[in-house]
Amino acid sequence: MLQLANGERIHLVDQKGRHYALTLKAGEIYQFSGQTIAHDALIGRLDATMVTLSRGKKMLAIRPTFGDYVLKMPRGAQVLYPKDLALIPMWADIYPGARVFEAGTGSGALTMALLRAVGLRGLVVTYDVRDDFAHTALLNIERYMGPVSNLVSLRKNAYEGIELLDDGIPFDRVVLDLPEPWQVIPHAASALRSGGIYVSFVPTVPQVMQTVEALERTAVFAMVETFETLLRTWSVQGRSVRPDHRMVAHSGFLTVARKVEPGLLTAGQEREIGDETFGTELESEERG
Q1: Which of 49, 56, 74, 216 could form a disulfide with 45 if both were Cys (CB 3.0 to 4.6 A apart)?
Q2: How far apart are the C-alpha atoms of 21 and 83, rounded to whole Å?
Q3: Residues in the chain with pLDDT < 70?
C-alpha cells in the first residue's frame, strides 16, 4: 500500500480537477484560500485519499503522474507538453540500456522522460549552458525520481560539439530541444553510431526547414520525417458528448532521422518515392 511520505512532492486536486503542488514537510502547514491543512495530516495517508481542509473544503491528495508533475513543477525554461514527451521516446526508439545524448536540459522534463525509458542499465548525457536552468532541472529530477546514478549533466554548449565519454562509445540516440538544432546536426552525425536515431523539437516552420536542410547536407541521415501532434479532449456527460472547447493544439514539430551508410537514396528521392507510394495506394483504394 503506497503511502504519502515526508519530503515527497504531491498534488491536491479540487472538485474542478485543478492541481495544486506541494512538498510534504513534517510540522508545516499548507494554506489554500484561507483554509489550512497540516502536512502531518497528509503524511502517511494512502495515495488518492480524500482530505478535508480547516473550513470543510475537500480535496484529493495524490502522487502526481509524470504528466501531472511536469506541468506543475518549478521551471526555468518552458517545458514540453506531455503529448510531446510521450511521443519523443517512442519515435526516438529509446530502449532500456540505450546511451542517449540530450541538449538542452531546460527544466528537466524531457530528461526525466529519457531516464525513465533507458532504465537503470542505460545512460543519459545532457548539455545545458545555463547554470540556473541546470540547477532547477536537477532539483526537479531528484524531487520526482530520487537520486539518479545514470545521468551525466554538463555545462556545455552543444552548438560547439558533442564529446563522447571517456570510454569512447558513440551514442545510440541524439535528442535535441534547442532553438537551432541544425547547428548540432554535424556533431550528431559524428557522435551517433551507425543506425542511431536523431530527434529534435522546434516550434516554428522556418526552424523545421533549416533542420531538414542540415540533415540532408550531412548525407549520412536518411528516413527523415517531420510531424506534429494535436491533443483534443472530449466532454462526456450522459448523452452530451462533444469535443472540449479548448485543446492542446500546436506546440511544436518533431523531426526524426536515422544515421545510415550513405549512397542509396538522397532525402529528396526518399520523399518522392514515399509520395508515389502513397498516391498508388490511394488510387488502388478508389478503384476498389
Answers
A1: 49
A2: 21
A3: 1, 265-288
